[in-house]
Amino acid sequence: MNIIVCIKQVPASSNVKIDPVTGVLIRDGRNTKMNPYDLYALETALKIKDMNNATVKTITMGPPPASQVLHEALWMGCDEGTIISDRKFGGADVVATSYTIGQGIKTLGDYDLIICGKQTTDGDTAQVGPEMADVLGIPHVCYVDKIIEVKEKSIVVRVNLDKTYEEVEVQYPCLITVDKGIYTPRLPSYKRSVAFKDYQVNMITFADVKDQDEAHYGLKGSPTQVEKMFNPDRNDNKVVLKGDANSLAKQLFDVLKDNKYLGE
């Protein structure tokens, strides 16, 4: 069984830099971490690997420093890592990102299952997984919170629909996105970090993808554009209220009303 896990490097804090021209995040590999939801996707794949002796490959898209998360995934137990990286891919929205990763996956050969985290913490759209499935022409199931059974030709999963659960069986090849809490992610192994210290991740560039139409990638292939992105202004302004309970309630009410958080 061949599994591909899509992972992403995201900012580790809200202290990020923004390109004033393109309005996109500057991703230089510093102050970053693996997208938390992707840790659950990785653990799901590794649990299946433990049960079925599957091969687990990881793939990410970003500048070269983003390959750091691929090494982390190798230390956790994955078998291979591939980065999709090219200046022509820069500035992509969810549509162009989904298309680009889909093209990259096509170069990896046959697969049975693609696993993604539910969403990323730097975008929160939860759209890339389903759109990738559309690009690849395969069925998908989102918001999976339990793997019920892994069969030879299909997988049975439970979907969390907020107020109810649904059990779904989907045929391979397919894509699922998993929610947090499906499994507890394991820690990277020191022994594996030593074993893979000289590992060179695979790289896919624009020259490697089958579709060579630049209009499908990066800013050119993005039907949506960020109008404006900026770091919020920070200040330490504060109001100290003093008095008994009734007085504090009245003062707090007046502050909220004066700042138009409350109506008349």
Entry keywords:
single chain, nine-stranded mixed β-sheet, two-stranded antiparallel sheet, 6 helices, 26% helix, globular
Short structural summary:
With 264 residues, the chain is an alpha/beta fold. It contains six helices and eleven strands.
Q: Can you put this structure into words, describing what you see?
A:
26% of the residues lie in helices and 23% in strands. By secondary structure, the chain is an alpha/beta fold. It has a single domain, classed as HUPs (Rossmann fold, 3-Layer(aba) Sandwich), CATH 3.40.50. Strands 9-8-7-10-6-1-4-5-11 form a nine-stranded mixed β-sheet, with helices on both faces. Helix 3 packs across helix 4. The chain is globular, with a radius of gyration of 22 Å.
